[in-house]
Amino acid sequence: MVTIDSIRKPVLADLAAFDEFVRGNFNAEGELLQEMLVHVLSSRGKGIRPVLTMLSAAINSPHEQIDGDGCRCSKRTYLAAMLVEMIHTSSLIHDDVLDSSDTRRGRPSVNAMWQSNNAVILGDYILARTLSIGMASAQYDLVSHLGAAIATLCEGEVLQNQHAGRLDTTREDYLSIIHRKTASLLGLSASLGAMSVGADRRAVERMRRFGEALGMAFQIQDDILDYRRTADTGKPSNNDLREGKITLPLIEILERCDEAERSRIMELVRRCRDDQSAVDAVQAEVDARGGERLAAVTMRRYLERGMHYLSEYAESDCLSALLDLCAYVTERNR
Ligand code: FPP
Ligand code: MG
User: Which of 101, 165, 233, 324 could make a disulfide contact with 96, Cβ separation 3.0–4.6 Å?
Assistant: First the structure.
């Protein structure tokens, strides 16, 4: 079983230095703003994006150098990782406001602690600081990608809203949503990592494609886990169904139903927002018809595509960690 710790191992010293780097860059004027920033920076989650940027930088670096502290990445790579990670952070702060979510990573969300008005401004502040730090660094080759990345996240969010509760949501619609809301930023993490060490255009593009394939698989697994029983509660969370999100395990079974079955299941889906018995009934249909297993086939296809992009690289501990990251996506249960 691959763990996130084994994936982080080759860049462990860098991750500690990166934390310092981020804290040094993100301190605010004003007591409340600073308090909210401390809360957000002390619960940054698994840090998949910075790990991806650093490992991508390492495998694309023309010569490996490890300093006395065990760090292998430059400040430029830290900057690349920070730009992406802080866009991600601000998007989650906004997402919790939009979803009225009271928790994030097992802790109270910013909106739960300080109300939505402050959370929205904090998200904006982090976004603005990220862009201004990027511009001040004058590393325009890295910074020039940020505006498009933010716009893509917003497109994904609006597309998701547009399709919420829409029972005609197709596989293509779903894939287009998750490409924008998740895969695009993982693609940017990996490509900026390569760019930060001066990799050529082909290598940067290859890493973007790798990151995007990984991101597609990552989000599909997230959506599968929403239908899976958790060790904590013994029940699936089914948050997506309650929020009207039609995700791949459901799409897979709807594609295989005849017209009458489809209408019956769709009627249940329509009632999921405020009827637990409908949620349980849809879950039972997805279980009985193998929705999770079918979605996992699509997920693995993306992972295989992703791993293919890594096949040109020489063996190294960082390459192994990236391959482990692919395995981790399938094996993770939270
Ligand atoms: C989490 O998805 C949310 C996202 C991946 C993107 C959210 C994007 C925006 C709110 C657009 C605004 C962007 C910026 C940069 C301010 P989820 O709700 O499926 O996952 P969750 O279960 O972790 O909440
Ligand atoms: Mg959410």
Answer: 101
